[in-house]
Specification:
- This protein has helices spanning 2-7, 24-41, 58-61, 93-98, 147-155, 165-173, 203-216, and strands spanning 16-22, 45-51, 65-69, 78-85, 87-91, 115-116, 124-129, 132-137, 143-144, 161-164, 178-180, 185-186, 189-195.
- The chain is of the alpha/beta class.
- It has 2 domains: 2-84 and 189-221, 3-Layer(aba) Sandwich (D-Maltodextrin-Binding Protein, domain 2), CATH 3.40.190; 87-186, D-Maltodextrin-Binding Protein, domain 2 (3-Layer(aba) Sandwich).
- Strand 1 (16-22), helix 2 and strand 2 (45-51) form a beta-alpha-beta unit.
- The N and C termini lie far apart (55 Å).
Length: 228
């Protein structure tokens, strides 16, 4: 009844516990730094944050709202697009001291590529370049289902990865990484929020969805990576 009253006319202040699920790196680098602004704006809301690169079952885990990156399968959930994940092809300068820089995506076949297994395309990396869409099947000696592991492996000089900008924005600004294949951009991925269909949309969920759309709806939040 409280959720229904909050939904009709917005007569009540958004309040209560909100269980939010999101990917690990996106949560660490993009969601958590913004939570203070949201919670200052809505002091009667408390957030229980679940960070995992596995898809969380909203019903089973009692999740109110989830953030998903990538193309979604058809479902009965309510979906809102809140932004776009721009990605880069990166490795350390130390890696390129013993390996030539790739000039075209097909050169990646000769490199040690660190594969993020949660990517829907798996070991097939997609690029958009002057010739259109290019698909390259890559390989390497490390595969990981966690974006934090991919980050540390790249920073250690193990190999090349295709990853979202936010995963390496600090390292790029500090000159610890090199961006290659600049004319061949990895295909961007959509960022969505999803929640269960209910007769009444709770005020706390509506406020967070609106907040995330405002925060991520434009490209202005993407960090400046300079000329690295």
């Amino acid at each position: 009844m409280a959720e229904a009253e909050a939904s009709v006319g917005r007569r009540q202040k958004p309040s209560g516990l909100l269980r939010l699920s999101c990917p690990v790196s996106f949560g660490q680098f993009q969601v958590v730094p913004r939570l203070k602004l949201f919670l200052d704006r809505y002091p009667d809301i408390k957030i229980d944050l679940l960070m995992s690169d596995q898809f969380t079952d909203l019903v089973e885990e009692g999740v109110d709202l989830a953030i998903r990156i990538g193309n979604l399968q058809d479902s009965s959930l309510v979906v809102h697009r809140i932004g776009t994940a721009r990605r880069l092809t990166v490795a350390t300068p130390a890696y390129f001291e013993t390996n030539s820089e790739p000039q075209v995506p097909q050169d990646l076949i000769q490199h040690n590529c660190i594969v993020y297994t949660r990517l829907s395309t798996g070991q097939e990396w997609h690029f958009e370049g002057p010739e259109g869409l290019i698909k390259v099947r890559v390989d390497g000696n490390l595969r990981a289902n966690n974006s934090a592991a991919v980050r540390e492996a790249v920073l250690s000089g193990l190999g090349i990865a295709v990853s979202p900008v936010w995963l390496f924005s600090d390292a790029l600004r500090q000159g610890k990484l090199s961006v290659v294949l600049k004319e061949y951009q990895p295909t961007p991925l959509p960022i969505h929020t999803i929640y269960r269909k209910n007769r009444f949309l709770s005020a706390k969920v509506r406020c967070l969805v609106d907040f995330l759309i405002d925060e991520f709806g434009t490209a202005s939040w993407i960090p400046d990576i300079g000329n690295h």
